[in-house]
Design a protein that fits this description.
Layout: E1 2-10, H1 15-32, E2 36-44, E3 49-56, H2 59-71, H3 73-82, E4 86-96, H4 103-108, E5 115-122, H5 128-146, E6 150-156, E7 165-171, H6 176-188, H7 190-199, E8 206-212
Antiparallel strand pairs: 1-3, 1-4, 2-3, 2-8, 4-6, 5-7, 5-8, 6-7
């Protein structure tokens, strides 16, 4: 599997309308051409910033999707429509760690959450595999005892992003008070303190962001929203940022 990671900056007043148009117009065409939505999120605290993650079968499928994006007249029409809502857009190709659940496993499992924790790290040359394996073998089981589940661990592919970028996404509770409890438990966990001491050699700096799963047709989303077909009205809930730090 491969994953397309998109940062989308939305005109603020059109946030909900963009979600509706994306679900009604773009999503069916994308899925028909092999691009499957894993998650569509609002990024805290930059609420006009969105993050979309799409699953693709393989490089051959990605080539077919790229041809569709470059030559299909429908995409030309979509791009003209999207310019009214989208201020900026950047994309990267990511490869998943072996323990990252596929979209089918996400749909079959319990990965719904209102708040997701997104982490980004740059790993020194030669340390990528070591770091990713440690996330799967050590950090993920540890985080599960705090009440978090690993949604995905991905690394950037050469030629599409800076080298040795690693992205992790975790469930992080349904209300902020749940997240505070998770955070407090983690910071008191001796195993986490040992992990942080050792992890510095893999990723000297890590950036944390919240993602809010408020789009009903997104597989990764809050369990508080009823299942809706793409294109139905979506209502956002503004939530403040909470840091994960010492």
């Amino acid at each position: 599997m491969l994953y397309l990671y998109e940062n989308i900056t939305i005109v603020s007043r059109f946030q909900e309308e963009f979600w509706k148009v994306l679900g009604a117009d773009y999503l069916p065409e994308a899925q028909q051409n092999g691009l499957r939505l894993v998650g569509m999120f609002m990024v805290g605290i930059h609420y006009n910033e969105n993050l979309a993650i799409w699953e693709v079968d393989d490089w051959a499928s990605l080539d077919r999707i790229q041809k569709f994006m470059d030559t299909d007249s429908w995409i030309e029409a979509w791009n003209r429509e999207a310019v009214d809502y989208r201020q900026d857009w950047t994309g990267k190709i990511l490869e998943p760690a072996p323990f990252t659940p596929t979209l089918a496993e996400i749909k079959a499992g319990d990965y719904k959450s209102t708040i997701y924790l997104h982490t980004y790290a740059r790993v020194p040359p030669g340390k990528l595999e070591e770091y990713v394996n440690a996330v799967g073998n050590e950090l993920a089981p540890m985080a599960k005892t705090w009440g978090m589940k690993l949604v995905g661990c991905y690394h950037s592919v050469a030629g599409t992003a800076s080298s040795n970028e690693v992205y992790n996404i975790w469930t992080a509770g349904n209300i902020h008070s749940e997240w505070v409890k998770i955070r407090d438990i983690s910071l008191k966990d001796p195993a986490y303190k040992e992990w942080e001491a050792r992890a510095g050699r893999w990723r000297p700096k890590v950036t944390y962001r919240f993602l809010y799963g408020l789009v009903p047709y997104s597989p990764l989303r809050t369990p508080f929203l009823q299942d809706e077909t793409p294109g139905e009205d979506v209502r956002t809930v503004a939530m403040p940022e909470v840091e994960w730090g010492k």
